[in-house]
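Dear H.,

Thanks for agreeing to be a second pair of eyes. The structure we're designing against is below in token form, covering all 105 positions.
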């Protein structure tokens, strides 16, 4: 069985601007890039969504890690992957700092 690091090193990264446009319909002007693979979404983007129905929000706020160290991040990414697999448009957001409460996508 391949290790986590082996799997991660084989992954082909996709640029966030192309991914946001293709999968979520978010235009480049609404992204604040942090390199090629991470970005924050501008609050101005919310204005473009006001005529659309609200989506669903799932918060993963606390979990006791398994002995293998699987906790909130693993659960959240797995949930996002599973929802994508069944055809749902999903976006996984992670809190950048526990103290600040600011989140980035």
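And this is the sequence the design step returned. I haven't edited it by hand at all.
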């Amino acid at each position: 069985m391949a290790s986590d690091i082996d799997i991660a090193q084989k992954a082909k990264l996709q640029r966030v601007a192309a991914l946001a446009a293709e999968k979520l319909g978010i235009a480049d002007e609404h992204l604040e890039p942090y390199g090629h693979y991470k970005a924050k979404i501008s609050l101005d983007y919310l204005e473009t969504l006001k005529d659309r129905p609200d989506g669903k929000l799932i918060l993963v706020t606390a979990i006791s890690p398994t002995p293998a160290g699987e906790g909130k991040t693993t659960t959240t990414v797995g949930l996002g992957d599973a929802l994508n697999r069944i055809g749902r448009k999903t976006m996984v957001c992670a809190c950048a700092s526990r103290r600040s409460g600011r989140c980035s996508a």
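Two observations from my side: The radius of gyration is 15 Å. The first strand starts at residue 31 and ends at 33.

Warmly,
E.
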